[in-house]
Amino acid sequence: MTQSTMLRRKTTASLRSQWEAQIDDHVIALAWSPRDGEQIAVASVSGPVTIFDRKRGVVRYELSGHSFGATALAWRPDGAVLASAGQDGKVRLWDVNNGTQLDVLDGGAAWVEHVTWCPVKGGKRPPWLAAAAGKVLRIWASDGHLLQEHSDHTSTIADLQWHVGRNELAYAPYGGVILLNPDQPESKRCFRWQGASLKLAWSPDGNYVATGDQDSTVHFWYSKSGEDLQMWGYPTKVRELAWDRTSRYLATGGGPTVVVWDCSGKGPEGTKPLMLEAHRDFLSDLAYQRNGPLLASAGNDAQVVLWAPGREKRPLTDASCNAAVTRVAWSPDDRFLAAGTAEGEVKVYSVTV
Question: Partners of 82 in the beta sheet?
Fold first, then answer.
């Protein structure tokens, strides 16, 4: 077979169910252990956190989690510690080797909405942990020592994300996006916009910061210059964003159609996006493979769909759950896809291409 013939072949994929399990309530967060992918942490909206074995789906640990409800999960980059956040105003650190609680960190407000570990490059220092609770941003050292607090915001911080390649944190209160390097907190940059964002996604190459917004738009900022673009025409507020590994494609939700912007060349301004249609109800989550071209979309129609944007407009394959799908996540090696639903169903699929 010649190379040109291979390039003309359609991309195909399959989702094969490996196992399924049940937790007590709506799946609010779902995350794979970052190095080996041998564990999956699942948080229930009612508070508990369950850690499953990836291969068999058996429960390794049932963690008490948070009174009043859990909101978010984040694995430390080495995979030894899991951070959880909740409506008790706390960030809790768990030892995943024995299921015990290591520490309890005060988020600074009644409800901690987001928590994330800084990726470690080169092993120069232990990773930082950042959390957003209402209008308060706090950053801790790996041992739980509070390093910084930023509480001068006039509104709730909607989302936050570390850049993969450098020690810079992007977060989104009302009115734009703030970029902060904890090593130089006095030199933070602000990208102003008079609106409310709901979701933030930093492109892997660092060139773009994108937000999904309350007013049914998507905003792009060039991170070096601060110049911005805005894309509109979505049926509803945009809560779903996912970049592909090359930083070329940004997949967005805000309706039943997956809208994919091509950010190559001069960028997405003035271009028409790819419109990927398969879901019968609004999207609930989007996730690109870490090192591959496949995109997973999840919807309130209880469907999980695989795509190869830029190669195929048709869906490659799909799978059905018993309730609206709330979260999807790829394993570190891209061979497995996990999904959680509004009724506490947890499923893991093997993916072949």
Answer: 75, 94
Say which DSSP state 314 is in: S
Quote the percentage of the chain above a pLDDT of 90. 84
CA distances (Å), origin 183, targets 171, 188, 265, 277, 328: 16, 10, 33, 44, 33
Q: Cα 181 vs. chain centroid, distance in angstroms? A: 21
**For the chain, how big is the Rg over CA atoms in Å?**
20
pLDDT tens track for 9-31: 577 899 999 999 999 999 999 99
- Lookup: tokens for 151: 């509480």
Chain centroid to Cα 225, Å, comes to 25
Closest-CA residue to 256 (of 236, 231, 283, 276)? 283
What tokens does 130 get? Answer: 């950042």
User: What is the residue whose two structure tokens read 């996912």?
Assistant: 242
Of 149 and 182, the one with more pLDDT: 149
Q: Which of 241, 202, 245, 251 is nearest to 332 (CA)?
A: 245
Q: Which residue has the tokens 């991309």?
A: 11
What are the backbone angles phi and psi of residue 96, rounded to the nearest 5°? Answer: -80, -5
Confidence class of residue 307 from pLDDT cuts 50, 70 and 90? Answer: very high
Choose among 290, 278, 277, 298: nearest CA to 341.
Answer: 298
The single-letter code of the amino acid at 188 is K
Sign of CA dihedral 44, 49, 52, 57: negative
User: Residue 233 corresponds to which tokens in the numbers above?
Assistant: 């025409």
